[in-house]
């Protein structure tokens, strides 16, 4: 099945700009929230509405394409990643930010073909920052090419982390250990509340390394290709090859900094997507 990635990008740009208007118009309003996997894993009606809008918009043009969507997954629709063209969608990455009107939320959309992400879009509608990449064609922020910083040492790095959405004691202790190690050596640590945002910041050179274990395919799919196209590295946090479905990511400005950091991390292996 031949896929025209430029046509796909045009479609998803249009749909995400439309969805972005909805998110932006609601971020400062009161939301009705429900919880999903844990007591601090939230979903709002906007997450569900935006995912529906995106999936229906794509289906109209590509009725045979498949979908792995955060909210469809939560509703029990669990697609495996196959070689078929598959859209991997997080309608609102940073739902906790959205709930609290903290202005850092992103729509994150990746398109995998042959099991590999070939196209990615991350759009922060509040800050109007639109990141995109197509395999082999570089990465862009609002139509300007972007590159990773190239920083090679943790001692020169600004690092992004997240505290995750699990209250599990073992998990929290691993996160605390890793953040403590990173904070001891880096210039500084940031936790922005959106995995897609963190990956996009690595791609544009504002963050030098980001690591998280326990996230999902829809948090990482677009960021994976955008970082690689910006010249950065994406690997598994144990130093192995990145696997989109294994819920673990280490994105960085260079392979050197990734190789320095990963042997010092405690590892957490969640159930696969
Ligand atoms: C979450 C955010 C957060 C990360 C969590 C994700 P969501 O995504 O990306 O930064 O720490 O692991 O689940 O639920 O807001 O789409």
UniProtKB/TrEMBL annotation:
Is Zinc-finger given among the entry's keywords?
no
The enzyme's E.C. designation: 3.1.3.25
InterPro entries per UniProt: IMPase, Inositol_monoP_metal-BS, Inositol_monoPase_Li-sen, Inositol_monophosphatase-like, Inositol_monophosphatase_CS
Listed GO MF terms: inositol monophosphate 1-phosphatase activity; metal ion binding
Q: Where does Mg(2+) bind?
A: 70, 90, 93, 219
Give the record's keywords alphabetically. Hydrolase, Magnesium, Metal-binding
Task: Supply the PANTHER family for this chain.
Answer: INOSITOL MONOPHOSPHATASE, INOSITOL-1-MONOPHOSPHATASE-RELATED
Name of the protein described by the UniProt record: Inositol-1-monophosphatase
PROSITE patterns on file: IMP_1, IMP_2
Q: Which GO terms describe its biological process?
A: inositol biosynthetic process; phosphatidylinositol phosphate biosynthetic process; signal transduction
The signal peptide here is none
**Recorded metabolic or biological pathway in which this protein acts:** Polyol metabolism; myo-inositol biosynthesis; myo-inositol from D-glucose 6-phosphate: step 2/2
> Which reaction(s) are listed as its catalytic activity?
a myo-inositol phosphate + H2O = myo-inositol + phosphate
Tell me its cofactors: Mg(2+)
* Family per record: Belongs to the inositol monophosphatase superfamily.
